[in-house]
């Protein structure tokens, strides 16, 4: 235990959350990749779980390494990261691929953009607190960066762009910008997006197909919305809504305690049981109880992050922790909502549980930065407690004239 306390600093509850999510990740991925292994690896289930374990180990290692560095370094590199993200997103948009391969390593640029934008906004909000209500100097420049980043992500990954926009706006609200001005900009943005989506929706229904609509993947999200709201009477075949139906079956047959580890049936039918719909597999095998535990882990992360924010005496670490924790928790809630049929299919993985190298690595980085701030806060608390103890006056020794009751009684009887 002393060794753990020596090297793993920061909030121990967040480390416990990482361990809990890792356990669910290993169990669920191992179970849900069984069919994949029999289809492509001659039944060798060890291949996929070893690969996933490797990504999980790297994610935890990244969290460990980043939590060692003081959070001030993340403020210094935030603008450099943002300058790097914009060109990468432009390349992604031009090539119409979500993934880029650099030096043999594939990664999803939207995951990189999420972290970079949150770090950038936290740094800018901290620098501009003295003029936080100035629309031209503060809100407009930051909101413009949000629109640019989310706009570049939007064509290839609509759900990620929406999530990032929501987290960024909430972070601006926490940063005490003018609510009236922020609401006005959000309203204008939502109207513009609604008009754009409505136009594409109408063109798609008329059978129009051009290069721009292919870039925006119009057919994909239009079909998903139609299937979710049941506005697709021409296509009533089960294959049109196959994923959602199989996920609902998995959730419905799980019961309260589930079928037990490795006993999922719907993993054989769900196209992405180890990624987008892994929460449905968790409920099927571990029941509603398992689902509640997973939800509890994410909500506990948000709660512990709020406690860290309350202890921060500087604005940058507070905004940084709040933005990163909201990003993780919001993504988890969206994934869960899709799995139980409350939202249309989005393609969002369950953070630190779903199969996926890029998501695992960047989520580990987010955990590491949160723990870095927590480590600094705990160190400050220890210093304050030490100084407080040194300032306390020493206890006065008992007077030599005072005697114990027994001694006093003896002296009176002599």
What order do the SSEs take from the amino end to the carboxyl end, as H and E?
A: HHHHHEEHHHHHHHHHHH
Estimate the helix proportion, in percent: over 70%
Helices and strands: which structural class?
mainly alpha
Low-confidence stretches: 235-240, 399-414
Q: Please give the radius of gyration in angstroms.
A: 26 Å
Query: Number of folding domains?
Result: 1
| Major beta-sheet overview | 2 strands, antiparallel
Structure summary, number of beta strands: 2
Structure report:
This protein has one domain. It has 16 helices and two strands. The protein has helices at residues 2-7, 12-32, 34-40, 46-68, 72-95, 109-127, 135-153, 158-174, 179-205, 211-215, 218-229, 242-254, 278-311, 315-339, 357-391, 405-413; strands spanning 99-102, 105-108. A two-stranded antiparallel ribbon has the order 1-2. A hairpin with a 2-residue loop joins strand 1 (99-102) and strand 2. The protein is globular, with a radius of gyration of 26 Å. The termini are far apart. The model is unreliable at 235-240 and 399-414 (pLDDT under 50).
């Amino acid at each position: 235990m002393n060794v753990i306390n020596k090297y793993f600093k920061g909030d121990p509850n967040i480390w416990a959350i990482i361990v809990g999510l890792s356990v669910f990740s290993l169990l669920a991925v191992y179970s849900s990749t069984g069919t994949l292994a029999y289809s492509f690896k001659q039944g060798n289930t060890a291949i996929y779980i070893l690969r996933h374990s490797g990504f999980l180990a790297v994610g935890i290692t990244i969290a460990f390494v980043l939590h060692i560095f003081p959070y001030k370094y993340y403020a210094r590199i935030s603008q450099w990261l943002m300058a790097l993200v914009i060109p990468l997103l432009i390349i992604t948009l031009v090539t119409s691929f979500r993934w880029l391969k650099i030096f043999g390593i594939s990664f999803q640029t939207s995951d990189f953009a999420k972290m970079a934008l949150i770090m950038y906004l936290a740094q800018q909000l901290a620098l501009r607190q003295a003029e936080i209500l100035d629309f031209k100097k503060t809100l407009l420049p930051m909101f413009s960066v949000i629109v640019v980043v989310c706009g570049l992500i939007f064509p290839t990954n609509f759900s990620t762009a929406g999530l990032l926009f929501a987290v960024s706006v909430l972070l601006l609200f926490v940063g005490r910008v003018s609510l009236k001005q922020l609401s006005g900009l959000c309203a204008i943005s939502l109207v513009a997006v609604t008009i754009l989506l409505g136009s594409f929706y109408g063109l798609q229904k008329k059978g129009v197909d051009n290069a721009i609509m292919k870039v925006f993947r119009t057919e994909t999200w239009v079909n998903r919305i139609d299937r979710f709201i049941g506005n697709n009477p021409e296509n009533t075949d089960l294959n049109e809504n196959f994923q959602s139906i199989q996920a609902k079956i998995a959730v419905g047959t799980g019961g309260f305690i589930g079928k037990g580890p490795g006993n999922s049936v719907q993993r054989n039918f769900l196209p992405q049981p180890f990624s987008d719909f892994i929460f449905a597999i968790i409920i099927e095998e571990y029941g509603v109880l398992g689902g509640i535990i997973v939800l509890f882990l994410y909500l506990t992360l948000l709660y512990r992050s709020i406690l860290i924010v309350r202890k921060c005496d500087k604005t940058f670490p507070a905004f940084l922790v709040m933005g990163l924790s909201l990003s993780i928790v919001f993504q988890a809630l969206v994934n869960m909502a899709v799995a139980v049929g409350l939202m249309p299919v989005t393609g969002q993985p369950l953070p630190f549980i779903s199969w996926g190298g890029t998501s695992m690595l960047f989520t580990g980085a987010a955990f590491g930065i949160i723990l870095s701030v927590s480590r600094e806060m705990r160190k400050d608390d220890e210093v304050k407690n030490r100084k407080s103890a040194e300032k306390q006056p020493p206890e006065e020794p008992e007077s030599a004239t005072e005697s114990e009751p027994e001694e006093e009684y003896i002296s009176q009887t002599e």
